[in-house]
Design brief:
Blueprint: H1 4-26, H2 33-58, H3 61-96, H4 104-141, H5 148-169, H6 175-191, E1 226-227, E2 234-235
Helix pairs in contact: 1-2, 1-6, 2-3, 3-4, 4-5, 5-6
Length: 250
């Protein structure tokens, strides 16, 4: 699996993750933050193409699981956001229009789209967490494809992004939004280390066959050597009695 072309695909993936990380930092810029966030989103989708190309050669379920679940999570998040926005149009005008009388059942009904949007976004967050977990598993299981330090950084980066997805699920706690943003930045820049794998090919050493120590040939038996018929002791042939058992020799 240590194919140079595969590592070049991961290098391109790392370069795009760096751009996504930079855009994630710049979202705090007033007026243009949303536009920069959209650019980061586009590069994130383009990075999935690099994963697809790499997996065409590797055929790893963990990579395919990452890519497919991340795409589904994006689709769910877009649907959830649209539903939530639609619900807000029905809810907030009635809250601030004090001259408008609204019944409790009608108010509950107006919150239903927002609740449905929240549930859809929750599912999206869970899917994204599982996607990043699959990518972490891939880097842990195939470390020999990358330089050692790159494999460590990539594994930690995808794990940080999994934590960021969890923080986004808990965004109703407000403080978790900031924590998730920080984890995203760290995760993207750790994955950006993959750009240093360009042209890298893991060295595989073929195990050598064990050396067979030559055995010494058996020492030749001197001519005229006999053995005692009683105990089997070696004799020179000149004895009349066996030196071991004392038997008379013929």
């Amino acid at each position: 699996m240590s194919n140079v072309n595969v590592n070049n695909e991961f290098s391109e993936f790392g370069k795009k993750m760096k751009i996504v990380g930079i855009m994630t930092i710049l979202v705090i810029i007033p007026f243009v933050g949303s536009f920069l966030s959209f650019i980061g989103f586009i590069f994130g989708l383009m990075a999935l193409g690099d994963i697809r190309n790499a997996n065409n050669k590797l055929n790893q379920p963990s990579l395919e699981n990452y890519r497919s679940k991340f795409i589904i999570a994006v689709i769910f998040r877009m649907i959830g956001s649209v539903v939530s926005i639609v619900g807000s149009f029905y809810t907030f005008p009635s809250l601030f229009d004090f001259s408008f009388s609204i019944s409790i059942p009608a108010l509950i009904m107006s919150f239903i789209p927002m609740f449905v949007g929240f549930v859809i976004n929750l599912i999206a967050g869970i899917l994204e967490m599982d996607a990043w977990r699959s990518l972490t598993d891939f880097f842990n299981q195939h470390r020999t494809l990358f330089p050692s330090y790159v494999a460590n950084e990539a594994s930690e980066g995808s794990d940080k992004l999994r934590t960021a997805a969890l923080m986004n699920i808990l965004s109703f706690l407000i403080i978790t939004i900031l924590i998730g943003w920080i984890f995203q930045i760290i995760g993207y820049f750790k994955l950006a280390k993959l750009e240093e794998t360009t042209g890298y090919a893991a060295s595989k050493t073929t195990p050598s066959a064990p050396r067979v120590q030559p055995t010494s040939p058996p020492a030749p038996v001197p001519s005229g050597t006999n053995f005692c018929s009683n105990c089997g002791a070696k004799l020179t042939g000149a004895e009349k009695y066996c030196p071991e058992c004392g038997s008379t020799l013929n």
